[in-house]
């Protein structure tokens, strides 16, 4: 009874008498019955017959989910598992003579080590869910690697495969670079949709016929200049600023460079090179559209000249330049520049340049939309005032050398304006200034003007006296605190009403000068001021 139980258990786990194994996947079993009946014993795989099978084991398009059992086909040279639903693969290291392994279009997330497969020449696992390739270090004769459209972040060192002819690793999140320096036999390199920015050793691929490197971050393909065997060069959607040299590539039939940072000046030489190859139009030469030409925002001052220029040196004479402001065309000509002779505030706005060339009519170049900001022609700031001296008789003497002037064209004129007078001062010293509110103006040689205000407070130790005789000394009295001020004479007669802060010059409500004498200035909530007018 115990023996029967043991045999039953062994049968349940796949091993039975007569060297057969039960295959867990029904579709796998049915495929073998239909295509390789000699290896089947009823519904079970005959292990010795499986081991005797040579050549190819083709299991493609069979809806297989579990490939358990393929490891018993130890004498085959080709294993084809493509287009199934396989998510795991058993250890196939026993198939030591395997030369071609095909498992594309499945659901594989990992593969067993293949370090024992020393004769492998063709390895294809595209369109799976792999995050890494298996150990292939012993497969030094490997000629073909197809692993595109997986989740692979890093390839094994390609120096392990000196015979490699085709590498298709596109649509994988590879690291920043790929090193093909040792792959001198490479004829096809597919690294599109990888995000890499550098191909190390590209210049060594003297047999290269096909390069797919589109949709990555590669800035230069200058290394292709000396490669004469190239037939397909699809490098679009990379931030390239030049096209590889084509005149030495007589077999080129596909050159796709759209989506870069190329201009007419970059494209025209390639057209000429292709014409010299007696290929006025190659089988495929796509160069439109291109990315926007970077153009930085511009800030300039009013009343000054400003020139907006096509940011490419040595532009083609056949170019046509169309300038737009706020999406409206403002100029169209053969000139690469748009000139403002004297910038005005109305010139501020959003600008764009579009460039056309009749000999490359399928392409329109444009800059990004950039902003032109127009500042005042001159600006004046008074951060601090340096008081050199202040006294009751001559008022303030101040140093204005700390003022800040931005823009403008020298020489400058400085004007100081109070409530009553405007005076040109001998910059930077201003003398004999009474307390009060002032406006300082700076005027440049183009008559641009900027002003800033400052206040000189009352000198506290001085008696409230004014001598309004026009000599610039104590002609006014500055009332600092804001509010309504009523002025009375000694007879308590109201002679003026003022709105402070204000410089009062000793006049009545009609503007007539008051007689010399004592006057009383009152403000709600404040002590009265007794002020003397002396003439």
What does this protein look like?
This protein has four domains: 56-275, Ribonuclease Inhibitor (Leucine-rich repeat, LRR (right-handed beta-alpha superhelix), Alpha-Beta Horseshoe), CATH 3.80.10.10; 298-375, Sandwich (Immunoglobulin-like), CATH 2.60.40.10; 378-456, Sandwich (Immunoglobulin-like); 465-533, Sandwich (Immunoglobulin-like), CATH 2.60.40. Helices cover 7% and strands 33% of the residues. The strands form nine sheets. It has an eleven-stranded parallel beta sheet with strand order 5-6-7-8-9-10-12-14-15-16-17, with no helix packed on it. Strand 36 and strand 37 form a beta hairpin. Residues 1-17 have low confidence and may be disordered.
How far is it from the N-terminal to the C-terminal residue, by CA? Answer: 142 Å
Query: Rg from C-alpha positions?
Result: 45 Å
Major sheet attributes: 11 strands, parallel
Strand content: 25-35%
Distinct helical segment count = 4
Output the strand order for the largest sheet. 5-6-7-8-9-10-12-14-15-16-17
Q: Name the shape in a single word.
A: elongated
State the fourth-level CATH superfamily of the largest domain: Ribonuclease Inhibitor
Number of strands: 39
- CATH architecture assignment name of the largest domain: Alpha-Beta Horseshoe
Quickly give the structural class. mainly beta
Give the overall pLDDT as a whole number. 92
Question: In the residues, how many domains can be counted?
Answer: 4
Helicity, as a percent range = under 10%
Question: CATH fold name of the largest domain, please?
Answer: Leucine-rich repeat, LRR (right-handed beta-alpha superhelix)
- At the first level of CATH, the class of the largest domain is Alpha Beta
Residue windows where pLDDT falls under 50 for at least 5 positions: 1-17
């Amino acid at each position: 009874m115990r023996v029967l139980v043991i045999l039953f258990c062994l049968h349940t786990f796949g091993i039975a008498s007569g060297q057969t194994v039960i295959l867990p996947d029904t579709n796998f079993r049915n495929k073998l019955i239909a295509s390789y009946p000699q290896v089947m014993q009823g519904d079970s795989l005959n292990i010795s017959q499986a081991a005797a099978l040579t050549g190819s084991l083709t299991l493609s398009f069979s809806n297989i989910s579990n490939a358990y059992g393929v490891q018993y086909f130890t004498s085959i040279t080709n294993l084809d598992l493509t287009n199934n639903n396989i998510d795991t693969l058993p250890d196939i290291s026993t198939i030591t003579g395997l030369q071609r392994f095909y498992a594309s279009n499945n659901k594989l997330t990992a593969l067993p080590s293949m370090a024992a497969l020393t004769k492998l020449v063709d390895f294809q696992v595209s369109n799976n869910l792999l995050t890494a390739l298996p150990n292939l270090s012993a497969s030094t004769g490997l000629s073909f690697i197809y692993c595109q459209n997986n989740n692979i972040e890093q390839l094994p060192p390609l120096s392990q495969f000196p015979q490699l002819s085709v590498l298709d690793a596109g649509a994988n999140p590879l690291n920043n670079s790929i090193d093909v320096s040792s792959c001198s036999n490479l004829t096809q390199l597919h690294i599109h949709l990888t995000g890499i920015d550098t191909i190390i050793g590209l210049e060594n691929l003297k047999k290269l016929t096909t390069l797919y490197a589109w949709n990555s971050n590669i800035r230069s393909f200058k290394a292709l200049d000396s490669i004469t065997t190239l037939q397909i060069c699809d490098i679009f959607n990379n931030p390239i600023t030049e096209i590889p040299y084509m005149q030495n590539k007589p077999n080129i039939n596909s050159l796709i460079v759209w989506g870069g940072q190329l201009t007419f000046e970059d494209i025209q030489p390639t057209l000429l090179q292709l014409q010299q190859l007696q290929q006025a139009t190659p089988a495929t030469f796509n160069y439109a559209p291109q990315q926007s030409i970077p153009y930085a925002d511009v800030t300039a001052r009013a009343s000054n000249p400003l020139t907006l220029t096509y940011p490419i040196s040595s532009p083609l004479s056949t170019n046509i330049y169309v300038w737009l402001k706020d999406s409206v065309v403002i100029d169209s000509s053969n000139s690469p520049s748009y000139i403002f002779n004297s910038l005005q505030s109305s010139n501020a706005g959003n600008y764009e340049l579009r460039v056309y060339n009749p000999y490359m009519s399928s392409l329109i170049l444009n800059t990004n939309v950039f902003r032109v900001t127009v500042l005042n022609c001159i600006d004046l700031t008074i951060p601090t005032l340096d008081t050199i001296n202040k006294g009751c008789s001559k008022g303030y003497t101040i140093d204005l050398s700390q003022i800040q002037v931005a823009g403008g064209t020298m020489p400058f004129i400085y004007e100081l304006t109070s409530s009553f007078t405007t005076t040109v001062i001998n910059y930077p010293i201003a003398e004999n200034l009474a307390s009060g509110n002032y406006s300082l103006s700076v005027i440049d040689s183009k008559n641009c003007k900027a002003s800033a205000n400052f206040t000189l407070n009352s000198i506290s130790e001085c008696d409230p006296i004014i001598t309004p005789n026009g000599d610039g000394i104590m002609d006014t009295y500055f009332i600092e605190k804001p509010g309504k001020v009523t002025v009375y004479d000694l007879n308590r007669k109201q002679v003026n009403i003022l709105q402070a802060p204000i410089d009062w010059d000793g006049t009545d409500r009609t503007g007539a000068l008051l007689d010399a004498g004592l006057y009383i200035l009152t403000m709600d909530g404040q002590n009265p001021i007794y002020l003397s007018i002396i003439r």
